[in-house]
Amino acid sequence: MSKKPQQARSIESTNRMLDAAEALMREGGPRAITIEAVIERSETSMGSFYARFESREGLFQALHERFLNYVIEDDLFHQLEGAIAEPDLATAIHSFVSRLYVMQNKHRDAAAFFLIFNSGDSVMREQGAEVSRVFADLMHQLVKAHRSEVVHKNLRSASDFAALLISGIGLETLIHEPGELTGRARSTKQNIHSTSQAVVAYLKFA
Predict the structure, then answer these.
(1) Distance between the two ends of the chain, CA-based, in angstroms?
(2) What are the structural domain ranges in the chain?
(3) Helix (H) or strand (E) holding 168
(4) Alpha-carbon separation of residue 22 from 13, 63, 130, 136, 191 (angstroms)
(5) Which CATH architecture has domain 69-205?
(6) Whole-angstrom Cα distance, residue 33 to residue 22?
(7) Could you read off the pLDDT of 26-71 as tens digits, one per residue?
(8) 8-54 belongs to which CATH class?
(9) How many CB atoms lie within 10 A of CB 190?
């Protein structure tokens, strides 16, 4: 269990270690996040690390909690609810995807850790699953709100697949640097446009 720092200097040191761990994750995956590497990258000390996290697992829990705090601070789910009220399906989907990408880009490394790291901690896994379920439920609300434009009879199945499409494409943009996967870089604007078009096409015509 991570210990919550009380003083400004302690908070700054803690954030440097969390930032270092996220950078190491981006560069080399979970195996690159060692206690020694985090200490070296953050220019802190072994004592400072253990005082705040107690263990590597405590560090992972703190990283996990930090992303959940970002979701709360950015009021992400309320933002996604706002997309549902758009006047038509295409606009609603575009707004929904845009708001997700803004959040993802703002906290890219934290989101990558949250989505990619395969934790054996049952509490962390359940917290991650709960975020996914809320996201899927919001997509279902959006599809129901624009059901007159949706060709699928089973709205739950259709909205679940739409959520999977958005999540899958978003995950790829977290795993790979721009242009790494295809050899041709795509901007965030292009990704939002193409993802939205794909989801709308599935819901309206597939």
Answers:
(1) 47
(2) 8-54, 69-205
(3) helix 155-175
(4) 14, 8, 22, 26, 23
(5) Orthogonal Bundle (1.10)
(6) 8
(7) 888 788 999 999 999 999 999 999 999 999 989 998 998 999 999 9
(8) mainly alpha
(9) 11
